[in-house]
Write a structure and sequence with these properties.
The protein has 458 residues and is mainly alpha-helical. Helices cover 81% and strands 0% of the residues. It has 19 helices and no strands. The longest helix has 36 residues.
């Protein structure tokens, strides 16, 4: 949980400081974007290495390596004297960051029995949600008081504590059997083509709108198709895409993607609402996001226990609907709204997120064999990242299109901005409700005995 929180904080803490970094290095905005883009690409490229590295060196050394690399990268980021040095340090960070979340989730999944797995994921997920929630607040505070370098210094004590606890308590993982499995180089090439094509597509959406080049779509489809064929022919593929033969896995994966598109897209609108329309500072906006994190802190373990009892479908249904309600409430916020009315959807969203994340993750992991666990956790992290990137890009296009539409109808810019935010939140609510379709066939009230039996049979 500590390692995951450290990596999750870094995913949101940097964005607040980008204007300050740009000013100090005197760089253009497209160049500064590489601070985020380089991390995102390398993060995705390292995620699928989890399965192969687990077989070669084991979970203990893999998790320890990932935390050490992330901590070392954070130190180098804080010492950077130029943009190229900072981008290089971010690549080192991503080397560890891309492995931490799937490796830690795989360790939990393989070491907790099915009847306790939901609770374990619920507690572990606190770190995953607290990071993005605390990141903007912490980033704004540290940048204002100590400069942008301090946003990377904060990872160092967390990283050192995580390294100590790993050595102290996770030594039992050294007993995991290892083998000299050959690296699936061709599969990794196909995967890299897929990820780089996807990243280009996301960038093209953000810059040129929805009308993308046909060749990019072909490259995306071909990359995934070749990856799937490669997976089916190899004894030890880079990613065992046979997990998609499980209907439960496919449905849970679709929910993960839809959830990420809607939630990251909705988060894209929040700064425009809080800082643009309502006039709050970055630090004040960060504090207004805290009720969301605190509510998840309280309710995530509860959702995990409910998942252990087999209440997957109904809890996921409730989470989807509650998150959609929070977006509808956000769409009703306007100039002059009270702080309490702003905090209400934050609280509602926190409850919905807790009910939506732990049960879906539990269903996803319970649907695969023990040998497929590392692939499942890697794909879970990858789909979240992909869904988030697409959600942010699409939200930017939608916001611009709607704003220009209302401006063209002779509304003032402030009114057009308000209408665009309202419509954007409502679209996010509609997108998250689409997850109800795959959630219809998630398992419900599956007994612990049946769950254990299914795992043994697999």
């Amino acid at each position: 949980m500590l390692g995951t929180m450290m990596a999750a904080i870094d995913s949101s803490i940097v964005n607040v400081s980008l204007p300050v970094i740009r000013e100090q290095f005197n760089e253009s905005l497209p160049n500064i974007e590489w601070v985020v883009t380089a991390y995102m690409i390398c993060f995705c490229l390292f995620i699928p290495l989890t399965n192969w590295l687990k077989i070669r060196i084991g979970y203990y050394h893999l998790f320890l390596f990932s935390v050490i690399m992330f901590t070392a990268g954070s130190l180098l980021c804080s010492l950077s004297q130029s943009l190229p040095m900072l981008v290089a340090a971010r690549v080192i960070q991503a080397t560890g960051g891309g492995l931490i979340s799937p490796v830690s989730l795989a360790i939990l999944s393989e070491n907790y029995p099915p009847e306790k797995r939901g609770s374990a994921i619920g507690w572990w997920g606190i770190g995953n949600v607290m990071g993005p929630a605390l990141g903007p607040t912490l980033g704004g505070l540290l940048t204002n008081l100590l400069g942008w370098q301090s946003i990377f210094y904060v990872n160092i004590p967390l990283g050192l504590a995580c390294i100590f606890l790993t050595i102290r308590y996770l030594g039992f993982l050294k007993a995991q059997p290892k083998s000299n499995t050959k690296f699936d180089l061709l599969g990794y090439v196909y995967f890299s083509v897929f990820i780089l094509s996807l990243q280009y597509t996301v960038s093209a959406i953000a810059r040129f709108g929805i009308s993308l080049q046909l060749g990019t779509g072909v490259a995306l489809t071909a990359g995934f198709f070749l990856l799937f064929l490669n997976s089916s022919k190899k004894t030890f593929p880079l990613l065992d895409l046979a997990v998609f033969k499980s209907g439960t896995f496919v449905r849970a994966a679709i929910i993960v993607v839809i959830r990420s598109v809607a939630l990251y897209g909705g988060l894209f609108f929040l700064p425009f609402l809080l800082q643009g329309l309502l006039g709050y500072t970055a630090l004040q906006s960060g504090f207004l996001l805290l009720p969301n994190a605190l509510m998840m802190l309280v309710t995530r373990p509860i959702a995990g226990k409910l998942a252990d009892k087999g209440m997957i479908r109904n809890i996921s249904f409730a989470g989807i609907i509650i998150v959609a309600i929070s977006f509808v409430i956000f769409s009703r916020i306007g100039i002059g709204a009270s702080i309490w009315f702003i905090m209400l959807p934050m609280i509602v969203r926190g409850i919905g997120m807790s009910l939506l994340v732990a049960p879906v993750s539990t269903a996803l992991l319970n649907s695969v064999t023990a040998a497929q666990t590392s692939t499942a956790t890697s794909l879970n992290s990858l789909l979240q990242q992909i869904g988030g990137s697409v959600g942010i890009a699409l939200s930017g296009v939608i916001h611009t299109f709607i704003s220009e539409y209302y401006t063209g109808r002779h509304h003032t810019e402030s009114v057009a901005e308000h209408f665009a935010l309202q419509d954007g939140f409502l679209i996010s609510a509609f997108v998250i409700l689409l997850a109800l379709i795959p959630a219809l066939k998630l398992p419900e009230r599956q007994s612990v005995k049946n769950a254990v039996k299914a795992v043994v049979e697999k």
